[in-house]
Amino acid sequence: MNWDEFADYSKQIADWGAQYHKTLRDRPVRAQTKPGDIAAGVPDGPPQHPQNMDAILRDFEDIIMPGMTHWQHPRFFAYFPANAAPPSMLAEQLVNTVAAQCMLWQTSPAATELEGRMIDWMRQALGLADGYTGVIQDSASSATLSAVLTMRERATGFTGNREGLAGKGHLRIYCSDQVHSSIDRACWVAGIGQDNLVKIPTQGPRFAMDTDALATAIQSDIAAGHTPAGVIAITGGTGVGGCDDLAAVAKVAQKHDLYAHLDAAWAGSAMICPEFHAAFWEGVDAYDSIVFNPHKWLGAQFDCSIQFLRDATPQLDTLKIEPEYLKTSGQTVTNYSEWTIQLGRRFRALKLWFLIRAYGLEGLQSRIRNHVAWAEELCEEIRAKDGFEIVTDPILSLFSFRCPGDDATQQRLVDAINDDGRIYLTQGAFDGRKIIRVQVGQFDTTREDVMMVADVVQEVWEAMT
Question: Is residue 20 part of a domain?
Fold first, then answer.
């Protein structure tokens, strides 16, 4: 392909993209294919000779698109969103075209310096204290793993990387029973082990970690000869939106000199709205590490996760490795690859720059406020349905419900809703029962889209019964 052809096909794809987004409401939200359908349309082996781009694009439309679940659909209410606002997409087109590997300052000074500035823009937007720095990670999973590795190294006097963990006893990490599975996986990968991840029970209307139980668990582990290494708190847990009392958890961590990490991957975006701080953000400045995902609720295209650090030194001491070929001669610069597990780095800051400038904080705030208000309104509509039960009330824009019947009936209803195609919901589990989750957060959703959930649930339920 020559560059004139590249330009022509780029225009075609841009036109296709605009039409795709304009007609998303006409498509079923979730892919309606069966396992193996897409693979059956792709030849078993690679072609020996070049193929025409027109044919490739036709096959994309005919073979690939039927198997895509449409995360940008305005009626995507499953999981958490992975939004992609148009300015963010444009930035990604530029990043893909320039195709820089931004591992060091010298390999792309603009990427490094814009990243530092965007992290500080977001620090200000979220109301974090002066002095927090940070790094853009690919996902919250990587940020959490970085924090857990830092906890491990700090608890072993920064000897684990060099000596291994043999003979260092049982390192213990503490969190609530509402944390995301990425916390478990981080403990696996860090060599700490599942059995040393201590999950503390939760209580209250926001399913907050019981800090008395946390303190007791730490003291018991110390008495048993174990080594407490860190505490992980959450704001906006994945299951039902669990939110810890951040100040109370941090107080326990500080008493025992433990590294404290906050997982605010979804709910952190809402903290650009100051009115949510008192309920969800009080005490945040006591945390050593904080992660939130602009690629969830804020509109930055996946992947884009910011890890804020109150003091970057412990994480640098954990992750920095500097062979001769990665050194920068004669300059005092930031190399963000030393802050992360990955050496190779994409230019993720550009989409944040485009996004924030294109909408301003006011534009982004208004979307989040609408989503919260619409979720509360929808919750009341479902609560009023005969036999339906609201299991967990809205925490920001996430709530859960059950229809009449047993757990199998909940799953039947979820499957029937998703097969219907007009909306997309997912099941979950809470307090030993299956639930149906609703999370409002797609970037272009409207009140009409949100309120359609109540109608679809009613129609599908009546058809089932």
Answer: no
Sequence letter at residue 38: I
Q: How far apart are CA 375 and CA 382, in angstroms?
A: 11
Number of domains in the chain: 1
HSE-CB at 279 with a 13 A cutoff on CA atoms is 14
List, in sequence order, every residue forming a beta bridge with 430; answer none if it has no partner: 433
Give the CATH number, domain containing residue 279: 3.40.640.10
The domain containing residue 212 runs over which residues?
101-346
- Which structure tokens are listed for 257? 């000199």
Q: Are β-strands 433-439 and 426-430 bridged in parallel, bridged antiparallel, or unpaired? A: antiparallel
pLDDT per position as a tens digit, 84-135? 999 999 999 999 998 898 888 888 999 999 999 999 999 999 999 999 999 9
Report the predicted TM-score, pTM, of the whole model to 2 decimal places. 0.93
Amino acid at 213: A
Q: Which amino acid is it at 400?
A: S
Q: Which residue has the tokens 């659909």?
A: 73
Q: Long-range contacts made by residues 17-26, C-beta under 8 angstroms, separation at least 24?
A: 17/89, 21/72, 21/86, 21/444, 24/70, 24/72, 24/73, 24/74, 25/73, 25/74, 25/75, 25/449
Query: Which amino acid is residue 149, in one-letter code?
Result: L
